[in-house]
Amino acid sequence: MSKMKKLYLPLLVVILINTVAIAQIDSLAEENDIVPDTIVKISPEKKSYKRVSDFKIYGGLTASQILLPKSTYESAYAAGFIAGFSYKRGRFGYWEAGLNYNGSVVALDDVSNAEETMYIRQLELPLTVGLNLLAETRRVLGIRIFGGVVPGYITSIGDNPFDLSLGDFNQFQLGGRLGVGVDVFFLFVEGGYQYGFTDLLKNQGSNLSQLYVLLGFRF
Q1: N or C, fewer C-beta in 10 Å, the chain?
Q2: Are 197 and 174 in contact (CB under 8 A)?
Q3: pLDDT tens over the chain, length 219 residues
Q4: Domain ranges in the chain?
Q5: What is the 3-state secondary structure (H, E, C) of 72-139?
Q6: The CATH number of domain 53-218, selected from 2.40.160.20, 1.50.10.10, 1.20.1740.10, 2.70.130.10
């Protein structure tokens, strides 16, 4: 019996210590809103694939001429300007819509006149789709290729020695565009070619051929 009593005493001490420890753990769990005996499963972090969008403003230079396959007029490239803004959305593949003012200048001459320039002012709504070839680094360095359509509306024609007025032109225009762009941080440069599907002059084959270079900012 004496041996049993000697064993009971250490056993009671162990039980007492264990009870106190459990009580302390429960108290801490309540204070920290931890639910005992609950296994918290932490799922692996999912990669974010949020769409990327940019607002862009730009300006640049153009070189334009009118292609006149059957005419007494001849045309040559002349320098003009372009300015506008656009909204771009997408990561690897993207779409872009914009509005710009195209101040085309073309050089014209015929058998009785020396070469003269003529101004063609129009508002355009470029609608393009493209690919970001460096999609993963696009915020630092990006290279893009794109193409699309460019509906436009001729607003005015400059004075010229050929007696051509706004009424001689098809004011609603539709063109196609191909180009390449380079993005460096918040700057971008684009270059491309635009071809007019709609004749500029009424009742005469006359398509606008235009090269352009743009420099702009993206936000």
Answers
A1: N
A2: yes
A3: 444 445 455 555 445 455 544 555 555 455 555 444 444 444 445 455 566 899 999 999 999 999 988 777 788 899 999 999 999 999 999 999 999 999 999 998 765 566 788 999 999 999 999 999 998 888 899 999 999 999 999 999 998 888 889 999 999 999 999 999 999 999 999 999 999 999 999 988 999 999 999 999 999
A4: 1-42, 53-218
A5: CCEEEEEEEEEEEEEEEEECCEEEEEEEEEEEEEEEEEECCEEEEEEEEEEEECCEEEEEECCHHHCC
A6: 2.40.160.20
